[in-house]
């Protein structure tokens, strides 16, 4: 389904005031989804640390070692800044800085606010991650999702190839013993773009 929302690359001039809302959507997903693959935290939440963590991610985005994408309503007037409550989702790609891997990226965060799910926002965020990564010369993206989660289904439906599953990979915060498994994915994004171009040309 075509998303009623639009993706935007984080831009400090237009989006710096959204940082507390980015931390809030992250906190809400940690509390409600109890997702174990969205950053280093588990409930109960250290909200001050979460804000500091986000400021560090913004610094990485500014240093061009990370891409942050926001999901927002389509913009009306270009000079109008989005309101905090407009924020519908976030995705991030960490750009590998090693000489051997500087063509790779890791989608290490994908969240759509509960009210906006199943409207194509997750797919739009993943596609924006691919587009912006390709613009920075990245041809291979990887992702790690919780096994049997909506995010696993979302990556699969966007053409990500499963490499395998690791059981009991992350603590959940429920108790010391309970852990959840992860599923590992990859996608060669430039290859797929070239293949679809070749098919279109045929
Ligand atoms: C994963 C998540 C981002 C998906 O966002 P979304 O906006 O609902 O996703 P979309 O509407 O774009 O769905 C894309 C595809 O994913 C699959 N999908 C997503 N959620 C699904 C669900 N609950 N059940 C079944 N399929 C689902 C479908 O194939 C869907 O395509 P379709 O609607 O054409 O059938 C969202 O559920 C979320 O934020 N979850 C909590 C946070 C999390 O676990 N993040 C991942 C860790 S990095």
UniProtKB/TrEMBL annotation:
Give the matching InterPro entries.
Acyl_CoA_acyltransferase, GNAT_dom
GO molecular function terms listed in the Swiss-Prot or TrEMBL record:
acyltransferase activity, transferring groups other than amino-acyl groups
Q: Which residues form the N-acetyltransferase domain?
A: 40-181
Q: What is the lineage of its organism?
A: Eukaryota, Fungi, Dikarya, Ascomycota, Pezizomycotina
The transmembrane residues are none
Name this protein carries in UniProt = N-acetyltransferase domain-containing protein
């Amino acid at each position: 389904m075509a998303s009623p929302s639009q993706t935007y690359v984080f831009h400090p001039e237009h989006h710096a005031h959204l940082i507390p809302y980015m931390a809030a959507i992250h906190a809400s997903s940690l509390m409600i989804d109890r997702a174990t693959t969205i950053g280093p935290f588990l409930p109960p939440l250290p909200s001050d640390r979460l804000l500091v963590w986000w400021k560090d991610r913004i610094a990485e985005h500014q240093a061009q070692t990370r891409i942050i994408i926001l999901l927002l309503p389509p913009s009306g007037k270009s000079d109008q800044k989005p309101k905090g409550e407009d924020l519908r989702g976030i995705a991030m790609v960490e750009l590998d800085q090693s000489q051997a891997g500087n063509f790779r990226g890791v989608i290490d965060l994908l969240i759509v606010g509960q009210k906006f799910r199943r409207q194509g926002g997750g797919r739009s965020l993943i596609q924006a991650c691919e587009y912006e990564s390709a613009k920075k010369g990245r041809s291979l993206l990887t992702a790690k999702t919780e096994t049997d989660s909506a995010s696993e289904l979302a990556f699969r439906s966007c053409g990500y190839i499963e490499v395998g599953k690791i059981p009991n990979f992350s603590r959940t915060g429920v108790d010391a013993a309970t852990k959840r498994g992860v599923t590992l994915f990859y996608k060669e994004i430039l290859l797929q773009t070239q293949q679809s171009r070749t098919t279109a040309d045929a």
